[in-house]
What does this fold into?
Amino acid sequence: MPKRHLGQNFLFDPSILRRIVEVANITNDDTVVEIGPGLGTLTKILAEIAKKVIAIELDYELYERLKQELKGFKNIELIHDDALKYPYEALEPFKVVANIPYYITTPIIFRLLDALKNMKSMTLTIQKEVAQRIAAKPDTKEYGVLSIMVQYYGKPELKFVIPKGAFRPVPKVDSAVIRIEILDKPAVTVDDEKLFFRVVKTSFAQRRKTLANSLKSISNDIKEILIDAGIDPRRRAETLSIEEFARLSDLIKNIVKN
It folds into this structure.
């Protein structure tokens, strides 16, 4: 019986599951981390192709069930653990495939981004609206902090939408499969990564305000800094590209330092 407090919605359609594996670009050389294997349906499909599957399940009852369900597979390592606390940094190069409970989508993504060293890609089944935000481009209503945080480290591509009726129990919204290929180096070079993300988050904190107003807390001279960066102070955060945010944060750092 699915547990609502754990956000469990199971996907059974084998054609959709195989399509997920296909867009994840799994090969027989890959180690795959599956977060939330649930009933093990996708886990088995992954194990047919991948060199190794590490399946992390938080629900103890499901974990016990999976031990029996998956015992015939020699290349599956089943782990009872919280995916938010798992030490991904200790793994060999790996790809992530996950049907993430809606309520922990953003924390899981940020946790995985903290473990970038050996991660090659993430293929995630998540709420459609969140997938659209991750893949969003500037000058759209979906574009925001999450878009830039992910696109700084990776190249996201929304692959396909899964209607809510494909899950049991049926959730209230549709899902989408998004693949994020991790870049060899960040999308932009910045002098101070911490300051870069601070500028981004502050800019979007009151997204209806102009940058000259929203960034006052960063510097009293923000209007002049924006002009020096080639950015009209009357623009709003959602109009700036990641390259423009990088240029702005570097200029702020240099001025503050001097």
Q: What stands out?
A: The chain has ten helices and nine strands. The chain has two domains: 4-182, 193-257.
